[in-house]
Amino acid sequence: xxxxxxxxxxxxxxxxxxxxxxxxxxxxxxxxxxxxxxxxxxxxxxxxxxxxxxxxxxxxxxxxxxxxxxxxxxxxxxxxxxxxxxxxxxxxxxxxxxxxxxxxxxxxxxxxxxxxxxxxxxxxxxxxxxxxxxxxxxxxxxxxxxxxxxxxxxxxxxxxxxxxxxxxxxxxxxxxxxxxxxxxxxxxxxxxxxxxx
Length: 197
Hints:
Strand order of the largest sheet: 3-2-4-5
Order of helices and strands: HEHEHHEHEHEHE
Strand content: 5-15%
Number of helices: 7
Radius of gyration: 18 Å
Shape: globular
Helix content: 40-55%
Oligomer: single chain
């Protein structure tokens, strides 16, 4: 849903190379970033709501977890962090309008690797600072569950939450192949622009 040179731009370059090697002649359409799409954000909020159905959320911290990037990539003009911050603001507003009043709503980053400076705060730091020991995690930068949502969030960070004596730790699934997300992507593809390589 968000643009980054490290994902979208590099994937399109790989696709262009493969297309040329295979002499592939199909018409290609490209969906623009859709983090600010009302329909998409309603799906996210409904999944968050479903994850805490019949639960008092007034003392639960909602943490949006996004894949981190090295700070130097952002400093070179990558707009990913801007998209992520805007997305959290949009979702925070919708949550309030829907009466989903979590103790607090914050943003953290996961999947850091190596010694360079990355976007912060890390999810590790966010969990350590979570005084109420209750957190609902939403994997903001992913549309489909994968090793970084399931292994990292559901296994590794759950282990950390247990070590920190959390009484509530839950990860909301990505939209994945839900009917509403499939319908959203189908509708989005109707308005996609033709992609010329």
